[in-house]
Amino acid sequence: MFYSFSAGRNIATHYAPLVDAAMEIKLEATTAHLWFEEVISGDRTIDIEVVWQHIDQAEWYAQAMLGGGENDEGTFISLNNSDLRQKIEQTIVDINTFRVIAHERWESQADSGIDQRFDTVFLEFTISADNVETAIQDIMARQLRQYNIEQALLIILILILGLFTAIVLNRYNRRRSSDIRALHNREQNLRITLNSIGDAVIVTDSNGNITHLNPVAEHLTGWTIEQAQGKPCVEVFNIVNAHTMEPAVNPVKQVLETGRVVGLANHTMLISKDGTEYQIADSGAPIHSSDGTISGVILVFHDVTEEYALQESLKVSELFLSSVLHTVPDLVWLKDKNGIYLACNHRFESFFGARESEIIGKTDYDFIDQELANSFREKDRKAMVAGKSSINEESITFADDGHTELVETIKTPMLDSEGELIGILGVARDITVRKQIELRDSSRIYVLDQLARAIPLPDILDTIVRIVESEIEGSLCSVLLIDDEGKHLLMGAAPNLPDFYNQAVDGLKVGDGIGSCGTAAFTQERIIVEDIQTHP
After folding, report:
1. Are residues 418 and 369 in the same domain?
2. Backbone angles phi, psi at 494, to 5 degrees
3. Nearest to residue 66, comparing CAs of 84, 51, 52?
4. Do residues 32 and 142 both lie within one domain?
5. How far is CA 403 from the centre of its chain?
6. Helices 113-150 and 82-108 sit at what angle, rounded to 10 degrees?
7. Are 106 and 30 members of one domain?
8. What is the domain extent for residue 76?
């Protein structure tokens, strides 16, 4: 009983899959043959690569029958029968011959003697595959008869095996039917997708006349497929330059003339049949027939009106911000977290003595001495750590002309939309004049305070002279008084002038031509001399 069960199991697991494999070989090859004929006749919906895949799959089943294998269909156990292996090996030879002749025919693309050879080779292959299937079935029949002779119970086993085979075939047929339905559904979905695609699609023939519009193209052009079919594309696809409103070169014409993919210009506007204006973008591409000639053009485009308006608005905003940035008298700059410059204005360019394009991507160490650069970086770091603006005063020397300014610098951490630190914004304002005014006001208050406290006049005059000298860098000053008679000058204060000068002017007579100081007191006008030693 065990022997009978084992023998039946051997037939079911060994030979039944081989029958399926033999059928798959013929099915794959027949499918390849039919689809090849469709492709060679000009059907562009089928890719030639699919034909080669079916031939490869047929060979795989044959190889699996020889050496074993496994796929979604089941497991194939290698054959030990030498006669059957020889037939399968011949089938593999015929498959390869069929593949070779198919490639030759594909490359020739012509109906000739190779066409007859192609059909002959396929017929020989079919016969070879039938021989394999027949041989397998014969082996199965012989073994079943042998089991029937050896034991009556084998009749039951044969019935069971027949039932099992029927079930397998039924499952196979159901699977194939399911595959066919799935294929049909995929094709249907593809058609729906093409009509539901978000981009507009216009197809023309080789003369530029429209053959197809999808619904999006109908909406944007204002033409239905019935209205547009057969009309020149330039009549339906009315495009102009958005800036000049002059007619734009139609991409269909360019594609037909050049045979290459052509993109639309950045400022292309589509005017629909009802006058609605759309800013559009995308391209046109040639459609090639089997002989390589251009049989038409496919034009794919989409509405970018909102994006275009946003871009134009951004350009205006950027221009405005750039104008403001470069117009303000303050120094303005932006660095990333590592101190690398991202932007700066013209005033800042004067500080470094370089153009913005030369500054961007570099650090302070590329333009100023290390000590000052370290100071700048430390102040940057403190502002970023604090997470708020920091204000400090510092004296800087401009590289373009060497002048020095006292500036008030505000450094503010810059954050992105998620609150992450991206860098630091710096603004420096010249406060030199303001500080001078503040110092002068402070000095005046100090002098008035001295007067109020009855400080001796020489001390007050000395204070005034020193204040003036501090405000005017490199200057030496004096205050001279006039005696009660108005005829002579008296030394009031000159703490830093040489003694010879002080002695020369003290008691100097007031009069025209009597020294620079005597003359100035007499004429009440400014006198300029080159040497105070000879003209005190």
Report:
1. yes
2. -160, 70
3. 84
4. yes
5. 44
6. 160
7. yes
8. 1-160
Q: The CATH number of the domain where 280 resides is what? A: 3.30.450.20
Q: What is the pLDDT of residues 439-497, one digit of tens each?
A: 777 777 877 777 788 788 787 888 887 877 777 777 788 888 888 887 888 887 888 88
- Model-level pTM? 0.38
CA–CA distance, 173 with 162 (Å, rounded to integer): 16
Whether 418 shows a pLDDT value over 60: the answer reads yes
Region 300-327: mean pLDDT is: 69
Distance of alpha carbon 224 from the chain centroid: 36
Contact 242, 262 (CB under 8 A): no
Contact 147, 158 (CB under 8 A): yes
CA-atom Rg of the chain in angstroms: 50
d(CA 434, CA 235): 70
The residue written with tokens 């039938």 in the block is 130
Does residue 152 share a domain with residue 36?
Answer: yes
Model pLDDT, residue 410: 93
The CATH number given to whatever domain includes residue 71 is 1.20.120
| Average pLDDT of the residues in 112-136 | 74
Number of domains in the chain: 4
In DSSP terms, 410 is beta-bridged to 391, 427
- Please check whether residue 208 is in contact with residue 187, taking contact to mean a CB–CB distance below 8 angstroms: no
Q: Which amino acid is at 191?
A: R
